[in-house]
Amino acid sequence: MTSKFVKLLAVALTIGVVAAACGSDEEEAPAAAPATTAAAAQVEMVADGSLLDTVQARGTLHCGVSGSAVAFSETQADGSVTGFDADYCRAVAAAVLGDANAVKFTALTASERFTAVQSGDVDVLIRNTTWTQSRDTDVGMDFGPTTYYDGQQLMGRASDGFTANSGAADLEGAVVCTNAGTTTEKNVSEYAALAGVNITLKTFETSDEYWQGFIDGACDISTTDGSALVGRKVKQQPADEEWVIFPATPISKEPLGPTYGQNDSKWADAVNWTVYATIIADEYGVNQSNVAAGSSYEGELQRLLGGDGELQTTMGLSADAFHQVIKQVGNYSDIYNRNLNPVGLYREGSANAGWKDGGLIYAPPAR
Amino acid sequence: MNLKNSTSQTQYEEEINVSTNSGLPPKVAALSPTEWLKANLFSNAFNSVLTVLSTAAILLIIRGLLSFIFNPLRQWSATATNMRLLMTQAYPEHQYARIWVSLGFLLFLTGVSLAFWRAGRRVQLSQVGKRLLAIGAFILLATLLAPFSSKATIIWLIVGAFIVGLGLLLKPAHEDKTISSLTLLSGAFLLAILSLWVVPYGHHSYLSTRTPKILAEPGTVAMTTKLPWTIMFLVAVCSYFLGAFIREKIDETRSKAVLSVTWLISPLFLLFLVLRDPDFDTGHLFSTDIPIFLFFSIVGSVLLLWLTRPDVGEKGRVISAAILFVGFATFLFQMLMIVRILTLVLAFFALAAPTFSGQKPARIRYAKVWIGSMVILCWLITAINTPSTAKVPGDFFIGGFAITLMIFFFTMVLAFPLGVLLALARTSKFPIFRMISTTFIEFIRGVPLITILIFFSVMVPLFLPDGMDLTEIAAVTIAFIIFEAAYLAENVRGGLQSVTRGQHEAAEAVGMTNSQKTFFIVLPQALRVAIPPMVGQIIATFKETGLLAIIGIFDFLYIARSVIPGQTEYMGSTRENLLFVSLVYLVICFAMSKASQRVEKRVGLGER
Predict the structure, then answer these.
(1) Cβ contact, residue pair A10, B264, below 8 Å
(2) What is the CATH number of domain A55-149+255-357?
(3) How far is B309 from chain A (nearest CA, A)?
């Protein structure tokens, strides 16, 4: 008798769990509110309006990052997310919500990232994603201002005769290693084919694996984005070897920046101007440690960082939105230096220097 | 080598046992070492060559592995510092007490259950001695092969020699002298936990201050690690004695049933009440959730008590069908999800009512089960819809090893009944059931698991209507359930086919109904036969959770393979982490396999 009871309860429990799994459908939808008609109306309103209203109503920014990209978005030992991309997520949250910590990070693989934006899982994707024509048009994304200008380069050993001035012609017969299934594979093949040299291409599933191949000597050349090459050289170059990065001009253009779903100008403006605000503040030398209330500035800075704040309120943000960004997260240099200096990347002389210093980082004026 | 030798020796002894074939187990004259070597390893030229070659290969492998592990270039601090990330991902540190409470509760259940089911068997001391001798010899050999510093070599040699000495001491013990295997096991755990207090393993932690830094210093393990583990050990041991004490005082069958149910439902409560720390909205609770629960409990009980009356007839079926119709109709209107689900479950109970009709006690029991499932269901739906206060980045409040275990548990608990149902449907006499089940099983078995996972993780979110949001974890758990159910169904079907025609006929001859025949005659025999393939499937499922790494869920493997090597500090530490992960998988799978062998022995598989 008792065993029958147990069986019955087990069956009931099973159904319960299945049903509860369906119940979790509504976990985060606003429709879980008690008054169902009101909730339905709310959903419709949000569907018609901009993502900006949804995010502000929700109080949390859902930001898609990689979660395992050195210096761009790392998951630390306590589970927190840090890095250049992660800081830009925080900057957007500071601008839109006034709180840099109101971010829910979602770690996405390369294959999931655009689906996550389309299905509304994330509001903005800041996951070292290159701005390309097909992604901008066919995939249905819109791209914000580029926050980091990267480019594919190659790295070899000085003992193999490679120097910073080496070029495609020096690659004859080399074993080149890279990630499987990425554009870097295609770029280096095209680069070698254009110069008419023969290379052996070896691909590995994760970046750590091909670096192991390079360190063990299974590869002569390893190729990926320049930022990653510098990081590896700083961290993993053995004392008795010298690794050199070439050519000086990258073999591909990889502009990285925030990405969001298309046809939502209001949301796009909020994200874009958050990035521009960090750049403009940097131009004026206003950073996290010396930023003051907006009214204490004159001209462009006053308009940007507060004052009457008319420019911000017309775009649906609070008047001091960008003041919060600089105060809580920092300007472009703060974000860059904090995350990328430890892996050996510096702004000076790179494409990521300000436009006044010969770089490409440029923002339209705030007026 | 030594381990291998000892097992082949026992086999050899068994062979002699069989050949002498007398009534009592015969005493075997122990062979001298030279004779033993000659009989087992060098019996002819070919065997001698094989022995030499395989010994050389094994020694080389051990040496390679040891020099890899103890190479100073290895970043073992990557694994040690990230232990929290590996185990729970981002679970907030100040709430870690919740994790320890959950683990402690499960260990308490384990201890009591071990006592109630009288697990553990007597092991001869001389056998223990032999094992220790083998282990000690292996440590000595490994120490000589490993590239240790001279100090480490001496320590390990002393440890090895100590174990060998202990083995030598125990080996000549009389065969009447036995020890419980549980005592041995807890002794081993005790040693491991004591070593946390004594041995300077080093102290690794991640300080997330304004400038994050990683702390790795020599010394004993942090108090936050060793103290909880010591308490956990004490809880397990004490609960075993508690179980053994109360076992004699109460009705054992009933308490075993209670224990089984507790095992089944406690993960749900631990997960949603203790770990998730839901932030209940009291107003909503009293205005909506509790009234709905009371309404369904009372109305449902009255209805079911009436439906289970033996004389209710066709009217009951019509009413049950009407409830089912209403249940489906609720999805066409704006309504709380909980009402829809409870109506559907009520319809299911109503439809099943005639099977459980009978005398008054039976009918009351059915109503009790209904109320019990209402409690669980309402609780779960409320808990899931309540926001968690454990603020973490990412979709789900735990990750790492915890999520691997969680998905494995839910997959096994839900895939098993589904698999049995599918197997019954496939062997059913009704063509429509057979066709649906066969199509489902063949379709799922024809598609690789990774495809199903990617489909559920990437495609399903796009198909869901607006406002509906299935978390990725829930989606992939469903994917795992349907995949494993299809395979389990085939294992169970194999068992069903082993039940002979005579059993069916005998059941029919004594006048059993179809469902009685299935549940009391056929299934118990079929499941017994299906144990070995099902355990194989369970172990495979545990390992298949590693595929979550490919779709980017922060499971145990993904953190080890991609996330930790993505930290600035620990670039290039993939191999260390993977070695650690494979060790954990190995230990758990081996334990499951051993446990299943015990179960097979208990049900007498292969003997009758």
Answers:
(1) yes
(2) 3.40.190.10
(3) 18
Pairing of strands B203-207, B213-217: antiparallel
Chain B residues whose CB is inside 8 A of the A76 CB are: 85, 206, 208, 212, 567
Q: What share of chain B is helix, strand, coil (3-state, %, to 5)?
A: 75, 5, 20
Name the minimum distance, in Å, from the CA of B414 to any CA of chain A.
6
Residue ranges of domains in chain B, CATH in brackets: 1-73 (no CATH), 92-250 (no CATH), 280-386 (no CATH), 392-608 (1.10.3720.10)
Higher pLDDT, B534 or B20: B534
Runs of H (alpha helix) within B386-522: 400-426, 431-446, 449-454, 460-463, 472-498, 501-509, 514-516
What does CATH list as the number for A152-251? 3.40.190.10
Over the stretch B134-159, which tens digit does the pLDDT of each residue have? 999 998 988 888 777 788 888 889 99
First-to-last alpha carbon distance for chain A, in angstroms, is: 81
Chain A residues with CB under 8 Å of B458 CB are 111-112, 115
- Comma-separated ranges of CATH 3.40.190.10 domains in chain A: 55-149+255-357, 152-251
A-facing residues of B in 442-461 (CB < 8 A) are 454, 457-458, 461
Supply the ipTM of this predicted assembly.
Answer: 0.82
Residues facing B207 on adjacent strands: B213
Say if residues A165 and A248 touch (Cβ distance below 8 Å). Answer: yes
- Judged by a CB distance cut-off of 8 A, whether residue B218 touches chain A is no
